[in-house]
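Title: Prediction job returns without error message
Component: structure pipeline
Severity: low
Priority: P3
Assignee: unassigned

Description:
Job completed but the reporter wants confirmation the result is attached to the right record. Sequence as submitted:
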Amino acid sequence: MTQNVVDYLPVESVPVSEFVSLLGLPAIAAETVQRQQPDQCLVLWHTDGTIRAPLVRARCALWWSNTPTYQHQQVGYIGQFAATDEQAAVAMLHSASAALCHAGCTLAVGPIDGNTWNTYRAVIERGDEPPFLLEPDTPDFVARAFDMAGFDLLATYMSDMVDDLRPFAEAQRGTRIRERLAERGVTLRPATDAELADPQQFVRLLQAIYRVSVEAFAHNLLYQPQSEAAFIEQYAAVKQAINPQLVWLAEHGEEVIGYCVTFPDWLPARRGLPVDTVIIKTVAVLPAWDGQGIGALLGEQCQQTAARLGFRRAIHALRHEDASACNLSRHYSTRTIRRYGLFACRLVLV
């Protein structure tokens, strides 16, 4: 859908220091926004029409100076998006679209915090399962607001649940694949305690994972390169949530050619509930090794390990709804627990 851009409601451009300290909306870390380097931060204040009240109704950050092109369109991103209600969200999106258009963008995309290495997507079908760790848990009105502001779905994603990991505990599937890979010199192993505990080994582990990631994801929608330092910083921030037994690596000689990163879902512990679920966050394989069954085998190993550690369920998190990204879920009996969308709107200055 094409949006004729006008300034629907006035908003205020604020510095990052003020943007991260707004009251009335979900908290946001100053270092996160500073690392993401937005081009502009916008705030919509509650007002009676004459005096600005000290209550914020919506916020967002915009990126346009270091964004990719998409189908010959100059992309601008809307991220760090939050609002108190649907009306405020729609007003914020109209103003954000206007700002991006005046900056020279022809396509607004959101919600996305600067690039696809960071948080992006909005919930479009919630289901009954509670939010899980590292999931973009947007209020239901956010997706409606994007639709009302003239945006269409650009891509859809889903999270699937394996409800019973017990059959994985003793199962040894993929034996033939493992034997074939072994003949080619490929071995699979979990990360070691030392690779998590020793700072230098941890950095080397992340460097190896980074090298696989930049090649494996290079053709993903809206892909942009990320520096190795930024990648390491992101994983270092969640280091305490990582169990090395749930990080599996595929190696060819000394080279890591694939990996699967799985996290325990620690959020139930905050509600006084047992931690019985793992999240398969990322599976990646070097393109030169695609089609060898390595990704499926890594996912199998992570789930088998999780079952032996006593975890009951596994979430295959945030998969793009296309054939290749959903291959892992097809190997198992899963159910979709959540769907997400990324939205886009053509911009025309009037």
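Comment from assignee: result matches the submitted record. Residues 4-9 have pLDDT under 50 and may be disordered.
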